[in-house]
Amino acid sequence: MEQEKVHVRLLTVAGIALFWMAAIFGRVAYLQLFRHSEYLARAAKQQRKRIDIAPKRGVIYDRNLRPLAMSIPVQSAFAVPSEVKDVGMATRLLAGVLGIPAEEIRQELESENTFVWIKRKLAPDKVEAIQSLNLKGIYLQEENQRYYPKRDMAAHVLGFVNIDEKGMGGIEERYDDLIRSKAEKVVVMTDGRQRWYDGGETLRDRGANAVLTLDERIQYIAERELAAAIEKTHAPAGSVIVQDPNSGAILAMANWPRFNPNAATNSPDEARMNRAISAIYEPGSTFKLITLAAAFDQGLIRADEVFDCENGAVTVAGHLIHDHKRYGMLTVADILANSSDVGAIKIALRLGSPKFFDYIKGFGFGTPTGVDLPGESRGLLHRLDHWGSYSIASVSMGQEVGVTPLQIATAVSAIANGGLLYKPYVVRRMMRGNQVLGFEGPETEEAKRVVRPETAATLRRLMEGVILHGTGKAARLDGWTAAGKTGTAQKIDPATGRYSPKNVIASFAGFAPINNPAVTVLVTVDSPGGFPHDGATVAAPVFKKIAEQVLPYLDVARDVPLSPQLMQTAYSTKMENDEAPLDDLAPIDFSAQLEDTEESVKANSTQATLQKLPEVMMAVDEGGDIAVPDFTGKTMREVTDGCLKLGLNPVLVGSNLAIQQVPAAGAKVRRGSKVTVQFGMPPARSGKAH
Hints:
Structural class: alpha+beta
């Protein structure tokens, strides 16, 4: 009987055990077969943490594929708080190495998060310091950092990025969706004890590369000459634009003040402002080009027609307006050449406000140009029904209207190219690898005709007169024809609400050569000091300096002979370098090969020129450390390229091949010094053949 009871008990226990085993195996089978994916996902979620790191942005190149912005790998420090055993010690050590307040680090290390950033995008010395600490729970992760190798060159066009590599200005912001790749994901793995190890998974999608219309060397020239003008006049701000008038492409866009996009947050907002597209100013006398363009296009005036400028005073709607000089009878050509306010007003009154307004709008004033850069201003143009009885007089001479430098440059380019208004642009193409991406940029838009070709031709001839015998004499080029217009616009004094007697915007807008324009150059200098401080004195010489360097670099043939007076100026007994060296401009990589070009000239003409040249004597700065190369036998382009590579300022005289230079080859000079090179036909060798 007892055995039966024991047997029953054993069977009962065995049955219960079998039941539980069946239940357990059934549950395990159920979880493995039907709930596997769900629990696997839960485990992965607990063990993995995906961290977004800065993506690798595409490269930004100039028009010749010289890199202006790129991404480089850097290390960032992060912590797994659960692994940090001695928070106090880790806090003290990290704070000392990274220069971060200890309290900030402590808060991160004491948090409940699986992963926290300590310091992102470390300098190499900081990386070595953290590695030497060998702190448990503190790790390094590779990220990408935007790097601008030319520092502040073209910074306002390029823009900059924030800590997460998001574009915050310029091209970086405008084309952020294309240049910026998707955020890279780094998988952080933890084991059962919450210890970190690298999961090794990354998802990468490269951004597109941008090829700009900017030319690095032309940009360098523009920035250097603007900086020299700013230093000379002690002006607080200024802009230079170099544009291809036949397409709207921007070859250079320089602004002052500058900033370094590698450390953009260290600069004030004013320095990061792209004044060339955002600063609104009254254009002054450069706007007389629009006044005359409208009247010529309507057939209301002739270049040789004479207007009575009434001894420099005229009354409009009860307002007495004085000219800057007491002009009497002037032709229309002389009105522009001498920049007569009274003459411009009389032409505008003949035109009438409605037609005048239509042409102003047609040239693009009062609306953004549409350039592919963020932050562009539309300018200021009151609606016609808001014009007062005096408005037509004010607007005709560039008052009561607000413009941006780019609007003026684009309008002048329309006159240069025969009357077509192109939309300006800075991006030529976007590429991913070797594939050119199709994107809708301003280049794809057709130009708009704003004046007849005959009107543009007449204006070009009159603008040449401004330089030859008018207010723009300081803009006259050595070897090329040029056309332009000076401008001196009084600024409003905030204290009085009236025009300031001393603060002005000095400007010059022009192009060269006249018959086949290659470049349009606009120069604006805000509130230059000293006296005189008008556009003729301050801005016109900057136009000359820029154009005389850019034209030979672009292989633009000279279209006028060298004037003896200009030759004498170039070759004087002593030439002083009055420009401070611009050592803060970034060095330029000039490794790209250039095609040799030569300009043909008549041998007898060249020999005659050489005979007239005086012996060259020039003071050389012995304190410099740049050795002047030997340019003998080089083409104009090779000389320009060689000088710009070393940061020297080439002064080119003549044509064909280099035959003389000052300073001599091997002389030591400072960055920014002038190097004068004479070009001509090499003397023929004489002697009998052996």
